[in-house]
Amino acid sequence: MAVIIDGKKISLQIKDELKEKVEELKKKGIMITLAVIQVGDDPASGVYVRNKKKGCEYIGIRSLSYELSGGISQQELLDLIKELNDKKEVNGILVQLPLPAHIDEDAVIKSIDPAKDVDGFHPQNVGALCIGQPGFVSCTPAGIIQLLKRSGIQIEGKECVVLGRSNIVGKPMSLLLLKENATVTIAHSRTKNLKEVTRRADILIVAVGKRKMITKEYIKEGAVVIDVGINRDENNKLCGDVDFGNVEPLCSAITPVPGGVGPMTIAMLLHNCVETVGLQSL
Question: Among residues 38, 96, 117, 146, which one is catalytic?
Fold first, then answer.
């Protein structure tokens, strides 16, 4: 039987550690503020934003909420971001994605001050990750590293396969694994003999956005499987990119969906908010 990696439990450990740090900073007169911008009324985005606000409240940092109409112009959004960039009391800025089709996400991400980019999406922060410089790291990949480490899973020297090459998960995930001295392969939709590639993995990280795509044919016996996917199955229940029931008997450890990677993303966002204090003083 595989060990089920409990993301809720590990994320709570991290939040409790952050809570202590925030209390210490408050004693020094330092208050952390996160500005959260949501454009439009996408229901999934609404859930994420509420969870982020709850997380801020739990660890004791202030959150400012900007709920904007879906019809807002790109320039109005950029003007708001500039205003928040200029406010010294605002430490972090988060723009909830996706944005409406008429707004250029890339332009919005680039407009955020890299020292306030707690999502870790700005090209300057991505570049810093590539060359090992200080900066914010994308929250989901950073959370996965914490899941592995806090579950006692060794990364160094392991063969890791990252399935998916997005800017938000796949690419930064591979860089973080390299930093931990793993041997890393990035696989994707054009990879030939995909099952052969994934069956080499001691640690397989799946972020493809296709429900239950990964079955036992893709898995090496004893592998650790991390499922980043969030999908709905035929019964409208949440499921991942991995067919959990089919794969779990082969694994040494596996994340469930929900309750695996998801809670870690918010924990690491909060971690980045607390890190702003150090990074903004550099």
Answer: 96
**Of 179, 139, 128, which is closest to residue 55 (Cα–Cα)?**
139
Give the bridge partners for 253, in sequence order: 3, 224
Structure tokens at 134: 């200080």
38: annotated active-site residue: no
Token pair listed for 232: 């709905």
pLDDT-flagged residues of the chain (< 70): 280-282
Give which of 252, 271, 279 is closest to 22, Cα–Cα: 271
Domains in the chain with CATH codes: 29-114 (3.40.50.10860), 139-262 (3.40.50.720)
119 catalytic, yes or no?
A: yes
Identify the CA nearest to 246 among candidates 2, 26, 41: 2
The model carries a pTM of 0.95
DSSP 168-221: TTHHHHHHHHHHTT-EEEEE-TT-TTHHHHHTT-SEEEE----TT-B-GGG--T
Instruction: Say whether 227 is catalytic.
Output: no
Helices 7-27 and 139-150, axial angle in degrees (round to 10): 110
Q: Using DSSP, state whether 52 is helix, strand or coil.
A: helix
**So what's the pLDDT on residue 207?**
97
- E strand or H helix at 273, and its extent? helix 262-279
